[in-house]
Amino acid sequence: MQVDGTAAATSGDEATRSTDEPAPAKFLVGMGRGVAGALLFALPMQMTMEMWEFGITMERWRLALLMVIAIPLLVGISHRIGFEDTFSWKDGARDAMIAYGIGIFTSAVTLTLFKLLMTGMPAEEISGKIAIQAIPASIGALLGRSQLGSGKDDAEDDPQAGYGSELFMMAVGALFLNLNMAPTEEMILISYKMTPWHALATIILSIALMHAFVYAVSFKGGHELSSDTPWWHALIRFTLPGYAIALVISLYSLWSFERLDGVSFTPAMTAMIVLAFPGAIGAAAARLIL
Fold this sequence. Notes:
This protein is mostly helical.
């Protein structure tokens, strides 16, 4: 198919302008994407009653631990898909702090808009509500750079992912989706309703969907196995470790939101399996889009 010379030249000029875009302008575009990502990914949690309540009732040391754990996660995400080209961990830490700031700002504005923050409230309540919402919002701020990118240049900015990096991003995807589900009482309710056979079926389906999303159904960003690679290679190397990560993240999320307090071993393990179902899908999605 022939391409008109004038159109081709125009396209080339636009690509050159995109490449030569000044660093401050590129940074501001990244900031705009960060705000959009924070709103897009965190609004479901900012409009969830359980998250409002945990901002008040959650034990402060558990909230502090969650905030501390979020920092290396943000640094790792930033090193992979930060607001601008990140060539060192120092730059990644800077971008992570910017994302945290965006998460705090957007959460405060949204909660104020919904009249969930008011001047007469105790400072501890205000800070708790903002802090618990700022974690998913800050992750969303960094994911916004990847998901809301406008073209080829953005994809080329991302460094080549190694095995450890892919496992790390699967953990981020599992945590992000689990933050939507873990605060709700339904996780424990479902675990009490399920039989061991339901739990086993959930494990099998979680692994099957996780593997299919990445390797079988040809989503954009999916991975194709070469003809000389055994089918079980990717299952053992990526899918099963990814599911194990989703289980661990699910257990921590349930504990962090006090959903395991006073719960016996079997319902707790079943609740972990239930939460790992969306966690596994989140982990698979992270491999596709990041």
